[in-house]
Amino acid sequence: MRVGIIGAGRIGKVHIRNISLFVPELEIKTVADVFANEQTEAYAAQFGIKNVTKNADDIFNDPEIEAVAICSSTDTHSKYIIEAAKAGKHCFCEKPIDYDLKKVHEAIDAAKKAGIRLQVGFCRRFDHNHRAVYDMVRAGKIGKPHIIKISSRDPEPPPIAYVKVSGGIFYDMAIHDFDMARFLAGDEVEEVFAAGAVLVDPAIGEAGDVDTAVVTLKFKGGTIAVIDNSRRAVYGYDQRVEVFGDKGVAMNGNDIPNTATFADANGTVGGTAFQVMWDRYEQAFVSEMKAFAKAIVNNEETPVTVEDGLYPVLMAAAATKSCKEGRPVKISEVDV
Amino acid sequence: MRVGIIGAGRIGKVHIRNISLFVPELEIKTVADVFANEQTEAYAAQFGIKNVTKNADDIFNDPEIEAVAICSSTDTHSKYIIEAAKAGKHCFCEKPIDYDLKKVHEAIDAAKKAGIRLQVGFCRRFDHNHRAVYDMVRAGKIGKPHIIKISSRDPEPPPIAYVKVSGGIFYDMAIHDFDMARFLAGDEVEEVFAAGAVLVDPAIGEAGDVDTAVVTLKFKGGTIAVIDNSRRAVYGYDQRVEVFGDKGVAMNGNDIPNTATFADANGTVGGTAFQVMWDRYEQAFVSEMKAFAKAIVNNEETPVTVEDGLYPVLMAAAATKSCKEGRPVKISEVDV
Amino acid sequence: MRVGIIGAGRIGKVHIRNISLFVPELEIKTVADVFANEQTEAYAAQFGIKNVTKNADDIFNDPEIEAVAICSSTDTHSKYIIEAAKAGKHCFCEKPIDYDLKKVHEAIDAAKKAGIRLQVGFCRRFDHNHRAVYDMVRAGKIGKPHIIKISSRDPEPPPIAYVKVSGGIFYDMAIHDFDMARFLAGDEVEEVFAAGAVLVDPAIGEAGDVDTAVVTLKFKGGTIAVIDNSRRAVYGYDQRVEVFGDKGVAMNGNDIPNTATFADANGTVGGTAFQVMWDRYEQAFVSEMKAFAKAIVNNEETPVTVEDGLYPVLMAAAATKSCKEGRPVKISEVDV
Amino acid sequence: MRVGIIGAGRIGKVHIRNISLFVPELEIKTVADVFANEQTEAYAAQFGIKNVTKNADDIFNDPEIEAVAICSSTDTHSKYIIEAAKAGKHCFCEKPIDYDLKKVHEAIDAAKKAGIRLQVGFCRRFDHNHRAVYDMVRAGKIGKPHIIKISSRDPEPPPIAYVKVSGGIFYDMAIHDFDMARFLAGDEVEEVFAAGAVLVDPAIGEAGDVDTAVVTLKFKGGTIAVIDNSRRAVYGYDQRVEVFGDKGVAMNGNDIPNTATFADANGTVGGTAFQVMWDRYEQAFVSEMKAFAKAIVNNEETPVTVEDGLYPVLMAAAATKSCKEGRPVKISEVDV
Fold first, then answer.
1. pLDDT digits (tens, 9 = 90+) for B167-210
2. Which of C255, C266, C269, C272 is the best residue to mutate to test the A interface, defined by the most A CB atoms within 10 Å of its own CB?
3. pTM of the full predicted structure?
4. How confident is the model over C97-153, as pLDDT tens digits?
5. Pick among B154, B230, B235, B268 to test the D interface (most D CBs inside 10 A)
6. Which of D234, D263, D270 lies closest to B235 in CB terms?
7. Which residues contact D22 (CB under 8 A, 6 or more apart)?
8. B115 vs chain A: nearest CA distance in angstroms?
9. Which residues contact residue B237 at a Cβ distance below 8 angstroms, ignoring those fewer than 6 apart?
10. Which listed residue, of A315, C5, D6, D66, carries a Cα 20 to 30 Å from D163's Cα?
11. ipTM attached to this prediction
């Protein structure tokens, strides 16, 4: 099946490489990027891709291309989904669909109406550790989830310029955790309470955002989840989940590059965390694309659905409002 | 230094044994229990204690006795603290001082006025694992605390009859965690948000309580803490703390009776948790009493102070109110 | 049941304290030590023991005393066992019975003939971690043992003066591991191969001993065990066992004082090992004495038998010979 | 740089895939396999390789090809190395070079004389966990190695037909561990003592081999290493190393697919080991080939040298002799 890639920045390059090397079901015919240049062409050529264009329409208008991966900037996601829907092409779209709920709904509606498949890039669902916890939960090992705990901390905050346009920590960073909480709970959130603070960098506060947050989620079925986020963990990526239920608890440790330890009189030292996101989730990026390929080739539901694209944005909206107003906010308050 | 024990129930017996075996600085002269009987005498005799009485005044009026350990039912704590203050005797008092904030203040005021030392039985401060995390935090290793996480789960809910008079999960169970959060943060809480649910046993809900809770604490200095509680962890006691700061993170694992593991094709199995609280905190009960003895013998501040007796009760009051009203509650709202 | 303690040095004091505090079935009537002085009396008095003597016969001749704990220097063990046997008193004897196999046999024969119970102080059998592995093995979880691995390393070598009279690393240090190997295997050793080196301190080599050793044991039933010893692990006590069989593997980690860890950019640090043997095996010393008390009070076989006193000495003899001669040595070669 | 692959069985296919996907410095021009068929061609075609032949000479005679990867059966390794040497082509050769020491020497001599580079496929040197331990040792963190421990256990024995021609457990399985011991020690072995037993399957014994072994290695510099091997660990691959020295200890845990754990009243369960070698060492196979490419492209020494191809075979010869004769065997006894 032939596919087109829209956007050849950092994440676009990762998907180009991964599809080329590891997803034999898909063949990239065309790469479109508004800033496409010789370097883009050289990168594509490495993987035998000859068509590089500045115009995404070269993809949408190509009848040979059956699916697109939207890896462009967030503000263009919904627009491209709608164009893909019109052209009848399946979509893999990086998260989030949009920060504007109206646009999210429009994109989802277009996709549904056109009957195209749409998978949002919540790659952490495919991480070997998180997935193993999820599998235990879905297999019923822990029974009904009572408490879900997610720690999600980044090594470094993004540049302030980015923070200003990022939509804030809840849209930009916690959105992965909102997806993970729903994924693990198998239920929808009713109410969100977000406590935020500026403890990492005052400039983040001046930009109107927080850099440290604890978010409590009340699910419809009674499950309570709590997410803690920090923009800077000096020890590197820290991503752990825990699901506690009436039959037991499932959890994972933080993923680390190796298990080697060293002990002397100062203690036992080991387990430096990953410092680079691409290393931390290398396997997950491959796995999500394999899953997308499998779904569209076999004409099956994608493992991340259009609703999965909507709800984390609703949760981010509720968390942002809760953090600002200092009160719990219901999901029903923020949907449009 | 001679001491008297008031209350010879389960926890009183633990303190009688521990003082007799492990705290050579203290000698128990008298044990008072309103239900004292032959069994009480036999238990005391094991440790060479000859005086067993039904009347606590036999302790308060004995000029040889310099300190008392109050191990009677919670509703009598504040009364006995006030009597001890009048008699000029130092107090070790089981937690909490009272559920009624007015009584807590009266007891504390009496103790302060009389100049007696008062240590509240927050034994977990003395647990080897929690203490090791605390020591790292106090040594400045993690820098300023940004996020504190406490998981605190019991193996089994108490009988419903007890639940009804317990004051609720926040006074009865989370109070240890409120103390731990303050202890680790080195700061006071400003606002509390408690999300609660009845997921373990509907009878707990009918008794007006919750059995599952996630409590978010905002500290004055910006630290955010989150506590998760459950009345029933099928795998046994689960007590873990984590303090994340700008220089690193300190945490402990759950304490387990041994490190032995077994592996076969089904995985690696190990680490059954403690099932009985007295086993889980055996060392902590000894250590807190040694610390009390050291403080009063050397005329030093006790490691748990009168204020440490007050604030967790304030936090429990705020959490209870927050859970009922579904909104964050400031500590200033609940103090009397 | 009244008991006497012979030898009030370091290990004698530990047993005096443990019996007094934790073993209510036994009452220490008399402590005998050839160097007994005021300090000995003061130590005994702390635990309410009034009789302190320089003459062990005061114990052997006392009809009220039914058992003795022999905690004197190794060269006196067999003599005192024989005297105890004559006097019809049960014996707890510190390890080893003797370095001289002839004396070991004489002591064991005397004990058997007199029908007294004799427990040798292989305390590690009672360590919570080692015992948990043993329990899994005995419960059949790992099936038949194929490979047993024991790491046993001390924080510091003993003084050279002691090394010279210690009988060497195999009698002095590895003897615990020889006992542990038999205990875990549930079988007897046929052949021993010991590779030794002087890597820690040349003075140990000059004293005729090695400080680093790897010992391979072939058991009659086919199990192969390997022990590695070092006189100096800079990180503290390191004591781990592993039993691998046809149905699985059971192992323990090294015991550490607490589970707290700290992570920063340099890695995750945790788990300083114990530095002092008395801390490392504190619980094991108590448990072995409780087990001895239970056995003699209930007139049952002791959990460490007279044969258990013999075989580790045979293994030490074979290991010493093997290390010197550079060849495997059969147990049958060294027995007398 | 163009390369040829000789042998397209299981391991050959792995190298074809890895070179094609992950080693851009190398381009596979030709695949030779005596049993080459349509399937071989289809496999090669997947990776854009057009030349598939039954005749290895098509590679040796091709002046465009600068290096070969020898992935054919062990008995052909030395022959192909010699041919590659004659043709002036660098070699990557699967382990071992041969079981016959004379042939090993001939191959090594030919390679040396011709000045070609020769890397033997000891892939475990490139495993992330083992490498991390190695890096710590080489960085001097543990000081001088005193004791090295290697556990190396396979999930299942090979078929008896293979056991009969495998050269035995020491040539076939332990050879990786012999290489690892030298690699970690940074020294050469002087003497080997191997204790073996037939505990897994009597048919292995009937085939003249053992299935369980403990091998002690004495290094020239005094380091003692011990390797334990089993043909069947029911829990899957178990590969751990530990290097203990005068400044500390470095070790790794067994590599497992994920860190997820589950706890209930039966304990904490986690960490199923890998069941398939190709999964366990997937990254190591890629890394060793990248290292080979880097060496030959940059005209540098390969990270596994010709001597590294010789010594493990010497150790296997000594271990086999030691196990049979029941005595320690010096390396000098077995070299030809």
1. 999 999 999 999 999 999 999 999 999 999 999 999 999 999 99
2. C269
3. 0.95
4. 999 999 999 999 999 999 999 999 999 999 999 999 999 999 999 999 999 999 999
5. B268
6. D263
7. A21, D286, D289, D290
8. 39
9. B153, B154, B155, B254, B255, B273, B274, B275, B277, B280
10. D6
11. 0.95
